[in-house]
Design brief:
Blueprint lengths: L7 E5 L4 H12 L4 E4 L1 H4 L10 E6 L12 H18 L4 E5 L11 H14 L4 E7 L2 E2 L4 H11 L2 E5 L5 E2 L2 E2 H11 L8 E5 L5 E2 H7 L7 E5 L1 H10 L7 H8 L6 H8 L10
Parallel strand pairs: 1-2, 1-3, 3-4, 4-5, 5-10, 6-9, 7-12
Antiparallel strand pairs: 8-11
Helix pairs in contact: 1-6, 3-4
Length: 269
């Protein structure tokens, strides 16, 4: 690519999995950028972001704790991000929401993401909202979870494991974001960020195992909720289960058409 933009890209949530990889990609491709940590948006009077034309907004949480909840991080920080963009004269924002987010969502996580989407859509900024499936790469959340279970020689499969994932490579995600920075194809659109193939969770897990002594144990659906709430050793939280069992699939053909390149298939990822 070797492309130097006229201005700089601001990246919030730069210490997360996507943020770290995006910064690496930008460095390799000479895309000027500045990193912004979550704490910046929580200051009373943060300094303005200078000489940036776009904010790639990655701040968010997928699990609530006593200190951090969805409303505070996913919604209120998005409001702050829009306010700072306007004051800093940043005219474009790229936001990563979640595959499965809709007005019919009942999950607290999805509802918070939908609220953030609405804030961005109504901001008056040029926006691109991506709804990603599982983003796969070195140290991604799902793969780390499976590897942790592999070390214990047993992987728990919620329910049947036949529900569908549509994973996308972190490398492809970085490429798409870089294209969306300037391409008019992405202006003021909500786009599924999904790979070219679907795969069942059970098969995805089996593809991740190189050892023959790993036990796969199905956990009945009726037990999942209690395990997620009451068993600290259970590897899946409530929102993990909502996403996994949601069986969400997206429109990859549209993404590929807008992006103009071919995406990695599941085996290569």
């Amino acid at each position: 690519m070797n492309k130097i933009l006229k201005d700089t890209v601001a990246i919030s949530g730069s210490t997360g999995f996507v943020g770290r990889n995006l910064i690496k990609f930008f460095k390799e491709n000479n895309i000027h950028h500045v990193s912004i940590e979550r704490e910046y948006f929580q200051r009373k009077n943060p300094p303005l972001i200078s000489k940036c034309f776009c904010l790639v907004h990655l701040v968010g949480i997928g699990i609530e704790t006593n200190e951090k909840d969805f409303q505070e991080i996913n919604v209120e920080i998005s409001k702050r991000a829009i306010d700072i963009c306007k004051k800093s004269k940043i005219k474009k924002i790229i936001y990563l929401s979640g595959l499965g987010v809709s007005k019919k969502s009942t999950s607290d996580y999805f509802i918070s993401k939908l609220k953030a989407e609405e804030i961005i859509k109504n901001s008056g900024l040029n926006y691109t909202i991506f709804r990603p499936s599982y983003i796969i790469g070195k140290s991604d959340y799902l793969t780390k979870n499976i590897k942790k279970q592999i070390r214990k020689k047993k992987i728990l499969i919620p329910g049947s494991g036949d529900y569908i994932l549509q994973p996308i490579s972190i490398n492809d995600v970085c490429k798409v974001v870089s294209v969306a920075l300037e391409s008019k194809n992405f202006e003021n659109k909500i786009i599924d960020l999904v790979g070219p193939e679907t795969i069942s969770f059970k098969k995805f897990v089996k593809n991740s195992i190189s050892q023959s002594n790993i036990v796969l144990e199905n956990v009945p659906l009726k037990q999942l909720h209690d395990h997620a709430l009451n068993d600290k050793t259970f590897p899946y939280g409530i929102e993990d289960l909502n996403i996994l069992l949601g069986n969400f699939q997206g429109n990859h053909e549209k993404l590929e058409r807008l992006s103009g390149f071919k995406f990695m298939k599941v085996k290569k990822i």
